């Protein structure tokens, strides 16, 4: 007991509550532990115990205390709410929704409960019911910003970015300081390529930890200056918690213990580049641990799980507990695959979860975190001399990526220009990558190639407001709407890939180039024209094209890009020949050589 803690039970509970309100969860728990463990613990102690264990990342204990309290008082709204939060943290969203519904029978006008119900329904995959729950929360609490922010995020997840932006702007008018609203608004604006507006929204909160992922990612969409990109990431890293080192154990005469950490072990672009590495690892040399940090499991998850030596679902673990869990496996190397993408676990690496820590595949640049020792790159994405633009030590592989093509992809179609009588340029990159500079150069291409068309496909373009915005952006450069075909998201892989039958030449975005989209285009026989810039993000397509022997499709300036587009469009016969041979060329190239890639990566791990 604290020397200043009152000896009576009620007094200790009151003091523990005060500690909890002051964000002193550990101190509060030390006061409350014995009281909560008692058979006759009052409901007030069990409520607080559930809250504190949840605050300390122990959702299982939080659920246990909530259930104990509800056994005596089954209609206790705070306990039902706490039970719902614990179930959500444990990934049991459907049960959490039931707990919130039980609480709402007692408190039907609670905006907070309706908001929590919406979150649980969204996690359970019931998006329509989640929208209704958030809307009901807003009806009961017109100024309750969290419900508006969450509704905006749900709209954004469905590709309704204009609607998301509108909802979030309404929330900011009632609560301009609400952090999640600002973050969700900025994210929606980024997806519409409204980068300057997003930067303005983020400016007041850019230093807040919660906004870091969105603020840092925005740099890749806007900047071709590697110095400014690394400066922003370095500033974030300087604010991360400090950590010591872990002893590096001798690896002589034994397999390396390598762990991979990602929230994207599922149908996701990261998995398309990770799976060939995982399945090709030499198990005589490497013992593989996979830490799944979230994401809804699917058939890809099952394949990855079957290919790993060890698998742990760690999505419910807070950073400190995740770090401890990974340390228990005594890894030699931990590789995180997310960078500053949403759902990353960089804060666990900041605590030093393994003696050697690496970032790879999932993020187009430095993390800014000094506790990450290495970043996997190649000599195209990060030429010699660019090491100053990373906080990690750059380890250059013979090639950055290995790609697993969709084995059920439809056959390559004939070049559409053969029958259409004009060339169709296209891009299936997310609209957020279509920067103002990209629009300007693509418009020059359309002007220089008479009768040509531009086919854009992106999730964001399913929404009328975003289509109108996109037409206006090109219209400012003299491109009329009849030159544009705007297409929304196609959920099935085969349908998505079949759409490449409508494109002769893919135009890459910049300064944030394509990765998965570039590989998909090549697999479907469509050559990709890229403008290589100065940042890693702007040079990934250049790396991929080099690996398949298409270096003549890499341009160094906008003028060269336009000229190359004109010359390629004039050679329809050449496009047809290339289209017919491109899939086989890619399949036999190092880009699809999993064994060779895994051997190079394993050698890199040994060197580390």
Descriptive notes:
The protein has a seven-stranded parallel β-sheet, covered by helices on one side. Helices cover 51% and strands 10% of the residues. It has helices spanning 9-21, 25-37, 43-55, 59-72, 77-89, 93-106, 111-123, 127-140, 145-157, 161-174, 179-191, 195-202, 212-222, 226-239, 269-280, 299-307, 319-327, 346-350, 417-420, 436-448, 464-475, 493-498, 516-523, 540-547, 558-570, 572-587, 594-607; strands spanning 256-262, 286-292, 310-313, 333-336, 356-359, 374-378, 393-397, 424-427, 453-457, 484-487, 505-507, 528-531, 554-555. Strand 4 (333-336), helix 18 (346-350) and strand 5 (356-359) form a beta-alpha-beta unit. Helix 5 runs antiparallel to helix 6 (93-106), helix 8 packs antiparallel against helix 9 and helix 12 (195-202) runs antiparallel to helix 13. The longest helix has 16 residues, at 572-587. The two termini are 47 Å apart. It is globular and about 90 Å long. The chain is α/β, with parallel strands linked by helices and 608 residues long. The protein has three domains: 9-186, Tetratricopeptide repeat domain (Serine Threonine Protein Phosphatase 5, Tetratricopeptide repeat), CATH 1.25.40.10; 256-402 and 594-607, Rossmann fold (3-Layer(aba) Sandwich); 417-591, Glycogen Phosphorylase B (Rossmann fold). It has 27 helices and 13 strands.
């Amino acid at each position: 007991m604290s020397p200043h803690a009152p000896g009576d039970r009620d007094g200790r509970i009151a003091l523990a509550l005060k500690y909890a309100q002051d964000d002193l969860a550990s101190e509060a728990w030390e006061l409350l532990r014995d009281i909560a463990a008692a058979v006759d613990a009052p409901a007030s102690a069990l409520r607080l115990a559930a809250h504190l264990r949840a605050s300390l990342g122990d959702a299982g204990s939080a659920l246990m205390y909530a259930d104990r309290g509800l056994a005596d008082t089954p209609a206790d709204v705070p306990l039902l709410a706490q039970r719902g939060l614990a179930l959500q943290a444990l990934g049991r969203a459907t049960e959490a929704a039931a707990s919130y519904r039980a609480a709402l029978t007692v408190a039907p006008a609670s905006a907070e409960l309706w908001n929590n119900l919406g979150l649980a329904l969204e996690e359970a995959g019931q998006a329509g019911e989640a929208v209704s729950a958030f809307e009901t929360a807003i009806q009961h609490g017109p100024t309750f910003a969290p419900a508006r922010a969450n509704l905006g995020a749900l709209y954004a997840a469905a590709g309704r970015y204009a609607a998301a932006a509108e909802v979030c702007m309404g929330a900011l008018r009632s609560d301009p300081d609400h952090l999640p609203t600002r973050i969700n608004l900025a994210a929606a604006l980024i997806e519409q390529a409204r980068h300057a507006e997003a930067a303005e929204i983020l400016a007041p909160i850019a230093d807040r930890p919660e906004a870091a992922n969105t603020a840092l990612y925005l740099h890749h969409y806007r900047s071709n200056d590697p110095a400014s990109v690394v400066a922003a990431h370095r500033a974030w890293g300087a604010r991360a918690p400090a950590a010591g080192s872990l002893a590096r154990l001798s690896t002589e005469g034994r397999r390396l213990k390598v762990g991979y950490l990602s929230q994207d072990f599922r149908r996701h672009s990261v998995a398309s580049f990770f799976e060939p590495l995982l399945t090709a690892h030499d198990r005589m040399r490497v013992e593989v641990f996979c830490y799944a940090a979230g994401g809804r499991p699917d058939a890809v998850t099952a394949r990855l799980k079957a290919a790993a030596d060890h698998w742990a679902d760690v999505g419910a673990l807070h950073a400190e507990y995740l770090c401890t869990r990974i340390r228990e496996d005594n890894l030699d190397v931990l590789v995180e695959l997310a960078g500053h993408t949403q759902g990353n676990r960089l804060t666990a690496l900041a605590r030093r979860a393994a003696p050697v820590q690496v970032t790879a595949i999932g993020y187009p640049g430095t993390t800014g975190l000094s506790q990450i020792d290495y970043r996997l790159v190649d000599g195209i994405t990060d030429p010699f001399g660019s090491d100053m633009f990373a906080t990690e030590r750059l380890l250059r592989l013979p090639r950055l990526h290995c790609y697993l093509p969709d084995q059920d992809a439809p056959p390559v179609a004939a070049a559409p220009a053969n029958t259409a009588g004009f060339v169709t340029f296209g891009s299936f990159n997310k609209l957020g990558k279509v920067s103002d500079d990209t629009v300007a150069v693509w418009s020059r291409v359309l002007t220089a190639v008479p009768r040509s068309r531009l086919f854009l496909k992106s999730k964001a373009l399913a929404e009328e407001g975003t289509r109108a915005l996109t037409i206006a952006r090109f219209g400012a450069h003299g491109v009329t709407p009849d030159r544009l075909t705007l297409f929304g998201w196609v959920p099935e892989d085969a349908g998505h890939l079949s759409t490449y039958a409508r494109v002769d030449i893919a135009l890459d975005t910049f300064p944030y180039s394509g990765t998965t989209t570039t590989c998909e285009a090549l697999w479907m026989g469509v050559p990709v024209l890229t403008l290589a810039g100065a940042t890693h993000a702007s040079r990934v397509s250049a790396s991929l094209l080099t690996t398949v022997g298409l270096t003549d499709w890499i341009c160094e300036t906008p003028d060269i890009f336009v000229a190359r587009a004109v010359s390629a469009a004039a050679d329809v016969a050449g496009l047809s020949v290339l289209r017919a041979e491109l899939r086989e060329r890619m399949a036999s190239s190092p880009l699809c050589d999993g064994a060779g890639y895994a051997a190079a990566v394993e050698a890199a791990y040994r060197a580390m």
